[in-house]
Amino acid sequence: MVAAVALLPLLIQCALAYFNLEELRSFNYEVDIVSTPVKIGDDVGQSVMLMTTKFGQEYQCSLPENSYPAEHAESDETEEEAPNVLKLLEPLRSLPCLTKTRNWWTYEICYGKSIKQFHVENGKPEG
């Protein structure tokens, strides 16, 4: 009985560190899991970022190369002829802030002023 009680913290820690499939299902973007395991630090031929699940399990996220078509990369326009992006965005200053709520979070973008991420708790913005 004493041995079982002594092992209980270890068992709880192992259970919490177990890979959580529910976390994978809750992603808001496309995730492609490779069929063969890759050890952290192995060269996968792509840019990688070390990530951690909410349970502390580390994994390696491969970032795809830029897939922007090459024909758009080069332009015949000279720098003087190209539209000035800041000038094109200037009318946004006089418009109301853009707000988007997705699940728990609300995002607010006020051009030239602020970008906020928050959630509403007890009728007040938090976070």
UniProtKB/TrEMBL annotation:
<dbReference type="InterPro" id="IPR012913">
    <property type="entry name" value="OS9-like_dom"/>
</dbReference>
<dbReference type="InterPro" id="IPR009011">
    <property type="entry name" value="Man6P_isomerase_rcpt-bd_dom_sf"/>
</dbReference>
<feature type="signal peptide">
    <location>
        <begin position="1"/>
        <end position="17"/>
    </location>
</feature>
<dbReference type="GO" id="GO:0030968">
    <property type="term" value="P:endoplasmic reticulum unfolded protein response"/>
</dbReference>
<protein>
    <submittedName>
        <fullName>Putative glucosidase ii beta subunit-like protein</fullName>
    </submittedName>
</protein>
<dbReference type="GO" id="GO:0005788">
    <property type="term" value="C:endoplasmic reticulum lumen"/>
</dbReference>
<dbReference type="GO" id="GO:0030970">
    <property type="term" value="P:retrograde protein transport, ER to cytosol"/>
</dbReference>
<feature type="domain" description="Protein OS9-like">
    <location>
        <begin position="97"/>
        <end position="122"/>
    </location>
</feature>
<dbReference type="InterPro" id="IPR045149">
    <property type="entry name" value="OS-9-like"/>
</dbReference>
<keyword id="KW-0732">Signal</keyword>
<dbReference type="Pfam" id="PF07915">
    <property type="entry name" value="PRKCSH"/>
</dbReference>
